Amino acid sequence: MASIFGIDLPNISIRIFLLAHFGLLMLAGLGALPDQYHLMNYFILLLGLWMVSDKANSEASLFFTALTALTIIGDIMLMILFHQVVDFNGNTKFGTFMAVVNMLLKPVTVIYSWNEHKRRQGDSEVGGYTNFDSDVAPTYLPGHISPPVAPRGEL
Length: 155
Fold this sequence. Notes:
Layout lengths: L2 E2 L2 E2 L5 H15 L6 H19 L4 H25 L7 H32 L34
Antiparallel strand pairs: 1-2
Helix pairs in contact: 1-2, 1-4, 2-3, 3-4
């Protein structure tokens, strides 16, 4: 089980967070947010799909974690700068609320993706990476089977 700041986190897949962000982004499309908001968040979802599809790549998890953290700031800036105080109907209010919920879910996603990044690098106690560069002697065969030896003179 992963932990951060001494708190054990439940084992939740990153796929659940990607699915939640996708659903919230679809519902945020009803709001009065600019196209930059949607492009930025779709790019993050594509990075998340790259991270899920390439399980051995720690760079994908680092990119996803770092850019998700940056989009929190970007979401705040876009909501402040482009928030239109005009006659909101119900759909626009609902879409804007879903964008805020999406933004509030992002710090939790950053924490879980950072733990995934640490696991892929081998820094976590959940160890998902085997260090092949260590000085441990290879054991290719079980102990009761000896490796084949070439006969002398036949080379």
